[in-house]
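The record is given unchanged here:
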Amino acid sequence: MSTSMNKPNRTQLGLYQNHALTTILNHYDSSRDVTVALPAGSGKTLLAIYAMEELGKRQEVNRMLYVSHFNAAVDNFARLIEQDDTSGKVDVMTFNALNRILSEHQIKPNHYQVIIFDDIDLRLQEVSNLFHQVGGFKINFVRTEDGDVDKKFVYSDLYIYTLNQAFNDGYLVKSQELDLSQQIDLLKEEVAKITTGTDWSQAISDTIVRQIDQLKKKNTEYFKAQELLLSGKIQHDEIIEMSYRKEQLLEFKKLLDDKSYFDRQVVDGSATESVWQKYFERNHWIFGFGLNYVFNTALEGGGLERAVSGFSVTGHGKRSDALLSTTGIIRSLCFGEIKTHRKEILKKVNIPYRSESWSISDELAGGIAQVQRTIQKSLMNIAEALNLKDANGYSTKESIYLFKPKSFLIIGSLNEFKNAEGQVQEDKFSSFELFRRSISDLEIITFDELYQRADAIVNRKWNISNS
């Protein structure tokens, strides 16, 4: 099936998109970089493509670059730009890839005449150094909800279009209409392949049915979302958050299911656990529900991975992979250990007492021991209060009281208990279930179970009852 989509001409762009494009072109002519602040889902990618199309016509522009944090965004932009006449001038890559080729001197700093840095607000510290290492005209995209853009994100003149403006201009409706139009174009392409008097191939038939189902689903979702908006049951800031979470949920699924994609995320010399570590640092919300159904918020002022500060705990450099602070009158620590979805949970024993019995794997046993050691050392050395310190050793003036802290371990996948046909090995699975239920104060959860909980968090708002 062809996946090409007809790109709308410039006259079909929103008024704000044309204004933003004009601003970009004017800044290029005056040799001034520009920052464009747009709400999520407002056609930023399309704007970036038109900017490259217009700038690519300039005689002095030979090479252009699109940079994003996410491989999925890079791949999507590459597919879309292929339809453009200037595609031969455009490279796409992640921030990590750009940083690597610059450090290895594979390109000169002035190799690109135009560079688009996408979503620079997501990991500002990581990308800020790159701005000074490359030349050329820079277009920096940041996300905004209400037009209040933090000055630390702005390295140039600023163009802002807010979510409220998008609602008032009716852009969300126009965006939905455009998406449905593109789906219909795809359907027409398949119908056009059918020759009069010939039988339909099963592949073409299945493709058309699938496209029709997608159109029905999109239409239903759109009207459900519209109803929620008009009823006031969901606010525009929730849409922004939900949009980001849906995007990250797709990333979660891809990391779980796409082996080559996961392997590409592993930085040279780093453990495979670091891939999940970085992902969860960007997505604290995943731990907000499901873990004993207690809402947890990340500790203020630090990443998900946090040094356990205080007394001799830090003497050995002990780190907890995930350290969450429980919201409540009494704030207690929730320690976590993050392995990978590829680690085994159970293993066969050489001389089993019973043929249907299984032993826990070394990775699972090690993860449990690591969490329990961290908790025990904290309780013994700190007793009741743990005074947190920043990276420079200064106290943050925050005490978190330890009263039998909760903990969790994320490891493996439930697919370990299934064969190729999807049948469950009941003895093995029941051994795992009985074991993890026997462990108190520690929740053992697989990565696919955590994904299902994240999916429930993301999709719960669209299931609000009309009653």
In short: The chain has a mean pLDDT of 73. The radius of gyration is 26 Å.
